[in-house]
Structure prediction request, 393 residues.
Amino acid sequence: MSQLFHLTPPSRAGERQTLGNLPGSSLALAAAELVRANPHPVLILVADTPAALRLEQELQFLLRDADLPVLLFPDWETLPYDSFSPHQDIISQRLETLYRLPRMARGALILPIATLMLRCAPASFIDRFSLLVKPGDQLDLHGLRRRLEQAGYRAVEQVLEHGEFAARGSLLDLFPMGSREPYRIDFFDDEVDTLRTFDPDSQRSSSPVAEVRLLPAHEFPTDQEAIEGFRQRYRERFEISRAPECIYQQVSKGHWPAGIEYYLPLFFEQTATLLDYLPEDSLLLTQGDLPAASQQFWDDVAAALCQPPGGSRPPPAAPRGPLPAGGSAVWRHQALHPDPFASGSDRGEGRPQQPAGGRSAGSHGRRPGRRSPRPPQGLPGGVPGPGAAVRRV
Prediction:
């Protein structure tokens, strides 16, 4: 495809360019040129999920002959701290992206700003619970079943969706996270004999494959060590409820209640952001009103923190101390909003401590339950009219 804009990516860290008058799909054309011209990955931040999905489709078409990956890190599509978990297909796509990012030399990563504001698992977690299976590998079937259970996979009678496995004699059916189809592993004693895909509806095996990559079933560890770590960090920051349906009691029994994803930092000593997965000299392209979108997400978080969820689940507000690695699932960065669970020293000395989302002495004239507007100052965005900003990070 011939160049239309003849764009030159910024060459120094912090250098910024503003692109204006990009209506319709012209933004995708400009982004495609930048992805082709840049020797490192391009991170594309947009305001919401519809914009991210639309740009993904356009870039995949425009870069179809360039052999450059176009990855989408999807939003969970759930309200903050709601009692619903993301769909397994969404978790699968997110885990696949986290696995591929450190290995991606060039290409594009697209995500909404609210998704970037959430912390995620460190890369070491993905590496620890990943496994590559090939024909001829010496692998104990019972040991593999235990490993799948430790990685969060569910044992079922018939495999239908991501994160499930079923063992029948010398056969092991599983639908790995990050895979577009399930696989059937045939064992001969303790050796992998064949690997084939199969149709989850008819259960009929189809074409053989050379290898199967197994990723964890959740974005957090589910082994006993992780459960003990969660219990300890929860006790340090929250009051313990004896109600059997509370999150603490459910996780202690090895159950994963709906909405557990927003408590992800309690499973780790140290969390990460997507920026930690990207190599240095990556390019940042922003489009849309990012300050307004991030403020809206922060308002949703603040509202959730001061309103108890449905049922008898306790609200996630009023912890006794800051959450690990900078706190809640919301990303702490000087360019974005402060952490709702931050301690007094993090928020500023002498500032009165209020429940998250509560009204302070200086909040007259604002709606209760909302933070004062603090749009991100360090991220380029909010370009007047159709346009975008490019920055070397």
